Amino acid sequence: MATDVALSRRPTVVYTIPFSQLQFDPLSALAVATIPQGITRNFQVVAGSPTGRLLARWAGYVPAIAAREPELTGLSDFDLRKESLSLRYRARSGESLDRLLVEAFALVREAGRRKLGMRHFDVQLLGGAAVHHRSIAEMQTGEGKTLTATLPMYLAALEGKGAHLATVNDYLAKRDADWMRPLYEALGMSVGVIQGQQPQNDRRKAYACDVTYGTANEMGFDFLRDRLLKRRIDEGNRDLFGEMLGGESVSSEKPVQRDLQYMLVDEADSILIDEARTPLIISALPGEDEKIASEAYSWAAEMAPRFEEDVHYEYDHKERRVDLELDGRRLVRELPKPAATDKLPLSTIYEYIERAIKVKREMILDRHYVVRDGEIVIVDEFTGRMAEGRKWRAGIHQAVEAQEGVEVTFETNQAARITIQDLFLRYERLTGMTGTASTSARELRKIYKVHVVPIPTNRPPIRKQLDTEVYGTAEQKWVAIVEDVAAEHEKGRPVLVGTRSIDKSEIVSRLLEARGLEHTVLNARHVAMEAEIVAHAGEIGKITVATNMAGRGTDIKLGPGVEERGGLHVVCTELHESQRIDRQLIGRCGRQGDPGTYRQFLSLDDEILLMGLGPKKYKALVATGEKSSGKLNGYESTFYRAQHKVERKHFRDRKVMLYFEKERQKMQRQMSQDPYLDTAG
Ligand SMILES: Nc1ncnc2c1ncn2[C@@H]1O[C@H](COP(=O)(O)OP(=O)(O)OP(=O)(O)O)[C@@H](O)[C@H]1O
């Protein structure tokens, strides 16, 4: 097993045994292991790879932490807290955190046992040590990253400069903070949570806490707002900024963040790589033109339903274009209009109407986008996740906003921008955790200068991959998927079907219904509710159909009687653009050593083949698929090759973006500008 520690007496004799079967001699950090033949001997931990050597070194902490346990378990809650305060005092007096690690981790483990009923596993201590030593700890899905994070977070927070933990969404930030709060509080540490739409004062309080949970996006925007504020204060121009923050009083005009000291990124590869592509942007105050445009968008959205196809306009289905006819133009001229539009030429007003009609026809609520907290959030059709911060171009986004009656926003006139990459590189110490980083280890090392260290699992994973099935066409594939679901359901096992988009979830849902199989479908609308539903997805006989985002960070607990039936069965209906997303879905089963199986279904008309191999090869494969029937052999590697090609392409795109971003900043520094604020253009 790759994650196990290799033990050897001489470098030539290597036994690989599960980490959980190791015991450590506290003094020499020698590992004592029972090797398969049942002979107990002393072996030095040797590991060929650099990460193996690191693991071996950190493994020495485990017995030292355990040695403190008897004393700590005997302490009262009050004394435990006192111990923590004395540690804090030592850290603030300048004692290095490395030296305090053993005592700090022992305290956290005891607090976890007392307050959460969870005593950190040895491998979690290893994970915590890895994170503390500025590595990205790769822990398999379900191994308990949330609990592991408390170790390095507590240790970092001892210095009193704040420790931040970035999660992928607001829901997870709050859930994890609330879940771990009793542990931190038992050690006298305050916990803050940053949420979208939170007032400035609350944000400032949250950042003032010892540990702060929030999303990378929110933390980035706070950084930008602070930076704008500092400049305004420097320029003595308070009024304008007050207006930008929605007219907050002058007294609240203080930065919300402290210096960026320590950042632990949960789902590190996803945040540091996937999300890093989109810059965070704060728009400047709308100018006069934007006010007019905003009124025009709203007016057009209101009027669009009065226009009929083939009477007032023509719709070109291929080009997806709307053209007003003579009658349509007449109607535009006759309709009452807001005064602001007087300043617009008639041709522009026609365009507003044409765009509003196009949006009304093509953009569907809860499929292409959702409305959340008064904002339009695009649903990424590929991953089923919300594409936070992304906007459609050419006025479409604004037209959709007007259609939904939310505030119309403009991207022009950027006041400030930062990429996630830039933000994180500004932290004094950057670390992370993830379930799926190996595939992006190189990129993480290159960009962020952090190593990825795979941490052994607590119990040997017994998740089983069932044979992949390849079909000629999507239709055949869906039929086979329903058969597979039905077969596992028959055994009383819970089944989770993961799809790439909401549309595809609907296809599965219809087929399951036709087959008389009761099931729950999740869409991308309410992250909190979805996670809740997925959390029940482990009960006997439950069938859940979900787009991928629903699976993220969600802990599917097996209901009573499920383990004996073989645990959760995960059905993967297509390959994603990145292997990581596939692994996240698979990771919903076989958690914490639970039993579980998964099966990958593929068909020769899958999108990944088009994206990875190009239209010519794709066409040929589709043609072959249409002629064939039943399960096909020999195609599996083609799919993985295509996926690999897509991954490489994204990697290149990100490198190019990073290069241009760096060049832009260099130029601005040469011009004595602030690269985060002077961004117009
Ligand atoms: N030391 C422990 N003792 C008992 N239970 C634990 C321990 N650590 C974790 N768990 C349990 O393991 C489960 C998984 O934890 P968690 O959701 O943090 O995993 P994860 O690694 O974040 O998974 P994913 O990558 O899927 O998000 C939880 O139900 C948690 O209660």
From TrEMBL:
Where does the chain bind ATP?
124, 142-146, 555
Q: Name one Pfam family in it.
A: P-loop_SecA
Q: Name one GO biological process term.
A: protein targeting
One GO cellular component term? cytosol
Instruction: Check the record and name the SMART domains matching this protein.
Output: SecA_DEAD, SecA_PP_bind
Specify the Helicase ATP-binding domain's residue ranges.
126-291
Where in or outside the cell it occurs: the entry states: Cell membrane; Cytoplasm
This one is known as Protein translocase subunit SecA
Q: Which UniProt keywords apply?
A: ATP-binding, Cell membrane, Cytoplasm, Membrane, Nucleotide-binding, Protein transport, Translocase, Translocation, Transport
* Subunit annotation: Monomer and homodimer. Part of the essential Sec protein translocation apparatus which comprises SecA, SecYEG and auxiliary proteins SecDF. Other proteins may also be involved.
Helicase C-terminal domain ranges (all copies): 473-633
List the CDD domains. DEXDc_SecA, SF2_C_secA
Which reactions are catalysed by this chain?
A: ATP + H2O + cellular proteinSide 1 = ADP + phosphate + cellular proteinSide 2
Q: Please report the record's description of how this protein sits within the membrane.
A: Peripheral membrane protein
The protein's job, in short, is: Part of the Sec protein translocase complex. Interacts with the SecYEG preprotein conducting channel. Has a central role in coupling the hydrolysis of ATP to the transfer of proteins into and across the cell membrane, serving as an ATP-driven molecular motor driving the stepwise translocation of polypeptide chains across the membrane.
Tell me which Gene3D superfamilies the record gives.
P-loop containing nucleotide triphosphate hydrolases, SecA, preprotein cross-linking domain
Domain of life, per UniProt, equals Bacteria
**HAMAP family on file:** SecA
Gene behind this protein: secA
Family statement:
Belongs to the SecA family.
Entry's Gene Ontology molecular function annotations = ATP binding; protein-exporting ATPase activity
What the entry lists under SUPFAM superfamilies is as follows: P-loop containing nucleoside triphosphate hydrolases, Pre-protein crosslinking domain of SecA
Enzyme Commission code(s) on record: 7.4.2.8
What's the main place this protein lives? membrane
Q: Where do the SecA family profile domain residues begin and end?
A: 40-633
